[in-house]
Design a protein that fits this description.
The protein is mainly α. It contains six helices and three strands, in the order H-H-H-E-H-H-E-E-H. Helix content is 64%, strand content 7%. Strand 2 and strand 3 form a beta hairpin. It is globular. It comes from Novosphingobium piscinae.
Length: 165
Amino acid sequence: MAPRPADDRQFAATRLDVRQLIAMANELLALAADLEGIVPHGDDAARAADPATVLVMARAEYRRRRNRGQFFDNDTLFGEPAWDMLLDLFIAGLEGKQVPVTSACIGACVPTTTALRWLALMEERGLVVREPDPTDARRAHVRLSPEAMERMERYFQRAHRPQVR
């Protein structure tokens, strides 16, 4: 007996659900692997100072923020463009990557005009440094100031250290 069109639609919908579940499971496994390197074991609380661990924590934080929008089908619902840009620029700084202004705007998941306003505000407050691209006069790069890099690192060290009661 040949499958009916309704059965084909049901099968396609089920296959899509399975793909979404597999994607979520993979994301959870990645987060668990990240957290395995974050959570100190016993007297090993000094691991949080390790730059590689701080990078893992920052990536996990950024990934968690992006996941919220996926689960609620709306990236703008949880808008904190300044924090998203700080995270993105912090990760890029730890990885030694240059970030064009346009990429920083994309990392904020808000309209470009909104992201540019936040970049200007963060630049005024000394958190972001804007530098011209030496190879392309039409482009500029942004990075966190040394003070902002230090503040972000302190944030992750403090925020993810075990709480003593």
